[in-house]
Specification:
116 residues, alpha/beta, 3 helices
């Protein structure tokens, strides 16, 4: 398997401060330090793939590509669907640690990093 790391776009790369308007409108700046982190990860030999529901349309995928180019954020691919990877970086995820009994509690109390 390739050494692929998947990044969610909204809330991880795009700071996603303003409400969603459309797949083609990406109004906010990148999360502080994300370009440097992605550069470091790629330099270490990992492939970086961005996965986003925005990429479900060609216009949305082009908007992500234009955004990444504008901010000089280099990635290896942009996809709509989850691809095989060694890990996924997402602002709306709960890390499963082997104990399913705590999942409902974690779901009920979940907040993305920017709303804590």
């Amino acid at each position: 398997m390739k050494r692929t790391v998947v990044f969610d776009f909204d809330g991880v790369i795009h700071s996603y401060i303003r409400p969603f308007k459309s797949a083609e409108i990406i109004p906010d700046e990148p999360v502080n330090g994300i370009k440097e982190a992605i550069d470091e990860i790629r330099k270490a030999g990992y492939e970086v793939v961005v996965v986003s529901s925005r990429a479900s349309s060609e216009a949305g995928k082009k908007a992500i590509d234009a955004y990444l180019n504008h901010y000089e954020i280099r990635v290896d691919d942009i996809e709509f669907e989850k691809v095989p990877a060694i890990c996924y970086i997402d602002d709306r995820a709960i890390c499963f640690e082997g104990d399913p009994s705590s999942l409902l509690r974690q779901i009920r109390s979940f907040k993305p990093w920017h709303k804590k």
